[in-house]
Amino acid sequence: MSAAATASATVKAGAFDILKERGFVSQCSDEAGLRKLLDTEQVTYYIGFDPTAPSLQMGNLAQIMLMAHLQRAGHRPIALVGGGTTRIGDPSGKTEMRKILPVETIAANAEVFKKQISRFLDFSPGKALMLDNAEWLAPLNYIEFLRDIGRHFSVNRMLTFETYKMRLETGLSFIEFNYQLLQSYDYLVLCRRHGCRLQMGGDDQWGNIVAGIDLIRRVEGVEAYALTSPLVTRSDGQKMGKSEKGALYLDPAMTSPYEFYQYWLNVPDADVRQFFLRFTFLPVEEVTEVCSVEGQRINDAKRRLAVELTTLVHGAAAAKEAAEASRAAFGGGAAGGADGEPGDLSAVPSLQVPRSELLSGMSVVDLFVRSGLCGTKSDARRLVSQGGAYVSRRNITDIDARVTTEAAENGVILLRAGKKRYFRIVLA
Q1: How does pLDDT run across 245-265, given as a tens digit for each residue?
Q2: CB 176, CB 88: distance < 8 Å
Q3: Do β-strands 394-396 and 389-391 pair in parallel, antiparallel, or remain unpaired?
Q4: Domain range spanning residue 290?
Q5: Are residues 383 and 415 in contact, defined by beta-carbon separation less than 8 angstroms?
Q6: In this structure, are residues 310 and 322 in contact, taking their beta carbons and an 8 Å threshold?
Q7: 330 exposed, middle or buried (CB, 10 Å; 0-12, 13-18, 19+)?
């Protein structure tokens, strides 16, 4: 199917400029050629997502938003779930070999990915496509694959790519060395079957994508394109999407809407604009206006960011509940309910604990570890000794302190770590 088969009247001019203005463009194989193509034809493009985890993370959402903006400009996305490539493991950006997952786990993760991606792209007839590369990779005959595809790859050239150079220092397995061939073959299959002429991804995928371009040129004689985005990082050096409890997942069972909301309230001031541009659909002019505030008013922009992203990922109802819980947790005035009364805390993450366990008291250190606010007892001791631990709004600085049922208010013990991380212990 030709990418030009669909009428170009629906294509909006300036799609490349939209991506560039919102910070999605880092490397491009032919900027002038791709810009012209996007302005004149409906382009079919794809990004691959290897289901190595039971949920997508914020890093994946950056790529999904890239796809969504291009779809809104009139182009056709293919969301490719790597049910096949995950059986190998992408060495890109990794210092050691990925753990090989059971096929059943990969298949289960892939189904979750498909449902999550469907929240952001339009998969109605004639719009986006959702495919799984296990369809064509799993049945491959290895001898035929080496003869027909492998012969087009130069080992010397592959070793010039940063991914392989880095891994040679720590050890690169033969199975991982095949990954670039498989990803390139994906691009070739999508080009043949669906007229796909653009593959996108993060900067760490550059070598794999340009290898696919070269394969398509050699086998099909077709001009294809590569576009990568800068990996999203915070100005404080922390990897974007990493919270105190680990990765920021899109699955509410793994990262609750409240925790998700709180993450965006706590991003550095300098990052608010870039996150609005990369993770929302707000027009650039509106983003500029929202972020043009100074001093404490930047917190209003962060609240807007938290609402926009939580609504996008979890829905309006969950976003409203998370916002109310956040206000209640800080209590009073603008941060709480009407007339300074605390609001609804029900959306704050919680754990039921038998009342009997606290009758004689539980170590404050153990309680903070059990809640998940601290990863280890050492972390909890450090939090308490440095004055960052609160139990039902009372600051606890004694690492030997014990918490009893007397700390409960209406059957709930509210824990706080630092300024903005809360957890509820519900007595059962």
Answers
A1: 568 999 999 999 988 998 999
A2: yes
A3: antiparallel
A4: 242-340
A5: no
A6: yes
A7: middle
